[in-house]
């Protein structure tokens, strides 16, 4: 495993991190699935332990994943040890079977204490506003809360997990004010909308976490046009059959390129992301020890010509498909 410095912080993070959304379990808000289907806690614990054995030291979760269950499992496995780096998020809550965004100072301070308890830690290494919008940042309560948590040594650094489809307004606001230490962005072969942001943020000393690197599993090559998802798996509404078929067809050109590198599609997809030097770590979702092993295979160098071709594929084909996503 190789490691990269997280922006201007003193955090040295594994290039491959552990995306812990899936181990939170099949949480529902009314009829809306916000998890990844059924999981087994003992398998999740084995996945966490195996990932650490393979060199992963960066674990990204949220208080909303399984309504805290993901944090609890991470806390059970790692506790307060200082050779793992824990990132979690705040800002989502449920009321009357509806998801609400709450970036009030009161909610953030309270939620941080609750996350620390579940994680069994003295402090959180990287605390993120979970998809906060520009108006929340302009209001200022969330920024004041984050700075107070740093001053009280409850968190080491803070940042924001940015919008999947347009991450720019909030990132620009924080960069212009020299606030925060890092950003989490959706970035993969299909969704490259954050590319220019990654490049700019890197020059200004921000750490970058790349999420959804496999686009819900599409880039692993394991799905067919007949693939169906259980109702408690959020992909059941994100990847409906007709759209799934369209995406699979669109990926044929990517498959042709990846075949030239003698690696599986997962390794190629992760390598694409880490060939962008502005990215500090990429966080594929890991639910089993086998996934931990598959996601930590050696990364490869992709030629400049092939990177250019993949960037052009986004401009010509994938960007339009991203617009259809929900």
Structural features, described:
This protein has 326 residues and is α/β, with parallel strands linked by helices. It has 13 helices and 14 strands. It has helices at 41-53, 69-78, 105-119, 134-139, 141-151, 168-176, 195-203, 235-238, 241-250, 252-258, 265-274, 289-295, 304-322, and strands at 3-5, 12-14, 18-19, 28-29, 32-33, 58-60, 85-90, 92-95, 98-101, 124-130, 155-161, 182-186, 207-211, 281-282. Strand 6 (58-60), helix 2 (69-78) and strand 7 form a beta-alpha-beta unit. Helix 1 packs parallel to helix 12 and helix 2 (69-78) packs across helix 3.
- State the shape: globular
Give the amount of beta strand, in percent.
15-25%
Number of helices: 13
Order of helix and strand elements from N to C terminus: EEEEEHEHEEEHEHHEHEHEHHHHEHH
Question: Are there runs of 5+ residues with pLDDT below 50, and where?
Answer: none
Distance between the termini: 34 Å
The overall average pLDDT, rounded, is: 95
Number of strands: 14
Q: What's the Cα radius of gyration? A: 19 Å
For the report, how would you describe the main beta sheet? 8 strands, parallel
Helicity, in percent? 25-40%
């Amino acid at each position: 495993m190789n490691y990269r410095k997280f922006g201007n912080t003193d955090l040295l993070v594994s290039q491959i991190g552990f995306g812990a959304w899936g181990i939170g379990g099949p949480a529902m808000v009314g009829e809306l699935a916000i998890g990844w289907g059924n999981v087994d806690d003992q398998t999740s614990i084995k996945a966490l332990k195996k990932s650490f054995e393979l060199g992963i030291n960066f674990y990204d979760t949220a208080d909303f994943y399984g309504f805290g269950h993901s944090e609890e499992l991470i806390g059970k496995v790692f506790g307060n040890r200082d050779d793992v780096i824990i990132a979690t998020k705040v800002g989502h809550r449920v009321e009357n079977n509806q998801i609400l965004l709450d970036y009030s100072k009161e909610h953030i301070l309270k939620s941080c204490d609750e996350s620390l308890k579940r994680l069994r830690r003295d402090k959180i290494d990287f605390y993120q506003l979970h998809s906060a919008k520009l108006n929340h940042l302009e209001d200022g309560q969330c920024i004041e809360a984050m700075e107070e948590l740093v001053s009280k040594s409850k968190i080491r650094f803070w940042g924001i997990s940015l919008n999947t489809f347009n991450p720019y307004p909030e990132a620009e606001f924080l960069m212009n004010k020299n606030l925060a230490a890092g950003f989490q962005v959706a970035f993969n072969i299909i969704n490259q909308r954050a590319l220019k942001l990654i490049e700019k943020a890197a020059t200004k000393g921000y750490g970058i976490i790349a999420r959804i690197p496999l686009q819900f599993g599409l880039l692993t090559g394991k799905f067919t046009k007949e693939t169906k998802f259980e109702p408690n798996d959020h992909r059941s509404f994100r990847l409906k059959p007709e759209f799934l078929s369209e995406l699979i067809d669109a990926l044929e050109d990517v498959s042709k390129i990846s075949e030239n590198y003698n690696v599986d599609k997962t390794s190629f997809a992760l390598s694409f992301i880490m060939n962008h030097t502005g990215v500090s770590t990429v966080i594929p979702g890991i639910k089993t020890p086998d996934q931990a092993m598959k996601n930590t295979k050696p990364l490869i160098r992709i030629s400049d010509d092939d990177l250019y071709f993949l960037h052009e594929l986004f401009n010509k084909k994938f960007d339009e498909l991203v617009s259809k996503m929900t």
